[in-house]
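[step 3/7] fold_predict: job queued, chain A
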Amino acid sequence: MVPFTGFRVREEEMLALGMTLPGLAHRAAAVAQLPALGLLTLAGLTPPHWTCSYHEADHASASLADEIARQHPTLVALSALTASVEEAYRFSGLLRGRGMRVVIGGLHVTTCPEEAGRYCDAVVIGEGEPVWPAVLADAEAGELRPVYRASAPFDLARAPVPRFDLLGRGPRPRLTVQTQRGCPLACEFCGASRLLGPHRLKPVANLKRELAAITAQVPRPVLELADDNTFAGGRNSHELLETLAAADARYFTEVDWRVGEDPGLLAGLAASGCVQVLIGIESLVFRHPGMGPKQAELPRIMTAIDAIQSAGVAVIGCFIVGCDGETFDSLDRLAAFIEASSLADVQLTLQTPFPGTPLRRRLEREGRLLPGRGWSHCTLFDLTFRPDLMGIEEMELAFRDLARRVFSPAQSVRRQAIRKRVWHNNPRLRPCASEPSSSS
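[step 4/7] structure written:
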């Protein structure tokens, strides 16, 4: 099992800038170290007469292909996001050239199965769990089919405990747990929420088994919840919070601002181990379709964020740069807003039209996708479309200038001080009120 992971930026100046700005470099390192929960979950569904190995990759490595070939595998399973899928295709070629059969799955190949089929022996469209037994049986019989597609959404009550043991005993800054799949919202730009089926909740009994497996391997772990929008969708949040609290873990997750208007949820959030959440404020100049009740005026959003931070949970405010209506003036206003805001941390990304999203279909209809900027440019930090009010080079320059301003040493120190004040109110962190190194 080989996931293609890592932080990717194509534009050289942005790459150089990102690695010199502490806030960007810190988040890049954290993302790169997250294990691939999808493949570990499939490993948990693999029959006991099979053996599995797990190899993280960031590029198509001939030495890794040789290492895997020496194990004489019946099948190699690859997963990749859009920005890394071309590396996965190249790696598949290295494996097949050494006589191995390759299956690939994930969000990107779900939207581009014919493309993926040109590089691999088999493609999994949609969720992997429902078809994984058939993939293995066919591989064992030497009758692998070109395409596997689930006939119905996977019942998360049947989800196995992921094979965290495959990660080895070395240090792992954080592990991943999924409490739900999908999102009840349908934001235009989102490349994840609906591609693998409808929004579903994982039963608490399953979560307890997964958390027990993690804590048996890593006492008091740091977790990242692999959810698109935890606490959305009308679930029993108190039951979830109690389950997380019992694991004695610290965790980071993604939510929307409405958490800050739920006093009952706020009362137990920090006590459950939550130390930080990412909230999509998105754009100050454009209202994305599909955001539903997440759409609100900025003062209301910021009031809710202040409530979350008063409860001891730091908030990363996420902003999408380059939406329709963006200008030099609007980016200057965004920078000024962030510089004066109470946000404990910030994430900036360029609007990216991922395959399968309404955003990409809209920009394609309008003829605004840039030729020559393929999948490897879909990094969230490289421009892949023509802005409506700015030139391409103007937008790239303005994005770099915005990053320099927002992640300046002075701003980084200011936000670090905010985080310390917020975490002083967190019962899991209060004894030292210091910044947990793996939580931002």
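[step 5/7] annotate
The chain has a mean pLDDT of 91.
The first helix runs from residue 12 to 18.
exit 0
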